[in-house]
């Protein structure tokens, strides 16, 4: 697993713009290397703001969006179209503005599919298995990029402190009793996070500063799930100054004005 690099930007607005630029470059690089790109989206404030900035960037046309697979790190188990679904936010901010191949937009299904949360998680696991190639050495693609938002409690995706999903070795799980509404969710698990080529934790705001500090320490993932957010080749913590305000000065950090 890679050692995190911390990059800070002035505020949440600059952060979203800077991350959007990085996502475009990452997708272009992955496509140049192997013809397609697997991107994992996150919900949350800064995650959706980043998607809106990708949509607003003229450089987005450098990506062949028909050859991008879109996945989600987690989903709130709500009917399709519900405003609280991560999918709904992502479609509005970005996906509806792109020429995507609908077969490559991999949605975690909600209760309107007729499935239980467990069945939906298993269906997503099957979709991941189908997309995985021998070189991925696992039950899911080795994503080119997994973006993760982070809560003030240190949760990533829908992996909340102390909940059994953190021990789960299946690629996707149903989560019940989430402390953040809604209580039922679907989430990728830590082995899939850590199988990704690149993992970027994106966080803004003073209320995230304590969790950022712990996520960069050797805290246990049961207490601080974000401490397990590490990619195989690269891990970035992309922060605004407020979220970075409690990081020890010994930690290497790159700051932009
Ligand atoms: O519920 C969720 O929250 C986190 C973080 O959200 P934020 O608004 O505090 O940035 C998000 O990463 C996750 O995907 C989402 O389901």
UniProtKB/TrEMBL annotation:
<dbReference type="InterPro" id="IPR005900">
    <property type="entry name" value="6-phosphogluconolactonase_DevB"/>
</dbReference>
<keyword id="KW-0378">Hydrolase</keyword>
<dbReference type="GO" id="GO:0017057">
    <property type="term" value="F:6-phosphogluconolactonase activity"/>
</dbReference>
<dbReference type="Pfam" id="PF01182">
    <property type="entry name" value="Glucosamine_iso"/>
</dbReference>
<dbReference type="InterPro" id="IPR039104">
    <property type="entry name" value="6PGL"/>
</dbReference>
<comment type="similarity">
    <text>Belongs to the glucosamine/galactosamine-6-phosphate isomerase family. 6-phosphogluconolactonase subfamily.</text>
</comment>
<feature type="domain" description="Glucosamine/galactosamine-6-phosphate isomerase">
    <location>
        <begin position="11"/>
        <end position="235"/>
    </location>
</feature>
<comment type="pathway">
    <text>Carbohydrate degradation; pentose phosphate pathway; D-ribulose 5-phosphate from D-glucose 6-phosphate (oxidative stage): step 2/3.</text>
</comment>
<comment type="function">
    <text>Hydrolysis of 6-phosphogluconolactone to 6-phosphogluconate.</text>
</comment>
<dbReference type="InterPro" id="IPR037171">
    <property type="entry name" value="NagB/RpiA_transferase-like"/>
</dbReference>
<protein>
    <recommendedName>
        <fullName>6-phosphogluconolactonase</fullName>
        <ecNumber>3.1.1.31</ecNumber>
    </recommendedName>
</protein>
<dbReference type="InterPro" id="IPR006148">
    <property type="entry name" value="Glc/Gal-6P_isomerase"/>
</dbReference>
């Amino acid at each position: 697993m890679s050692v995190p690099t911390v990059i800070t930007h002035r505020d949440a607005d600059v952060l979203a713009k800077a991350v959007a630029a990085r996502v475009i470059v990452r997708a272009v690089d992955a496509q140049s290397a192997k013809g397609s790109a697997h991107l994992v989206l996150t919900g949350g404030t800064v995650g959706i703001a980043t998607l809106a900035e990708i949509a607003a960037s003229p450089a987005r046309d450098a990506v062949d969006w028909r050859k991008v697979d879109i996945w989600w790190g987690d989903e709130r188990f709500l009917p399709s179209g519900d405003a609280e679904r991560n999918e709904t936010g992502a479609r509005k901010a970005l996906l509806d503005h792109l020429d995507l191949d609908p077969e490559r937009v991999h949605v975690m299904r909600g209760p309107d599919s007729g499935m239980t949360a467990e069945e939906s998680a298993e269906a997503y696991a099957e979709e991941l298995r189908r997309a995985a190639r021998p070189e991925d050495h696992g039950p899911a693609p080795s994503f080119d990029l997994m973006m993760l938002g982070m809560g003030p409690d240190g949760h990533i995706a829908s992996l909340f402190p102390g909940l059994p999903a953190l021990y789960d070795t299946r690629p996707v799980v149903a989560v019940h009793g989430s402390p953040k509404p809604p209580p039922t969710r679907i989430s990728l698990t830590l082995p899939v996070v850590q199988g990704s080529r690149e993992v970027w934790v994106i966080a803004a705001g003073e209320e995230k500063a304590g969790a950022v500090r712990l996520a960069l320490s050797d805290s246990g993932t049961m207490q601080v799930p974000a401490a397990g957010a590490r990619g195989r080749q690269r891990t970035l913590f992309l922060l605004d100054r407020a979220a970075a305000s409690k990081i020890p000065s010994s930690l290497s950090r790159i700051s932009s004005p």
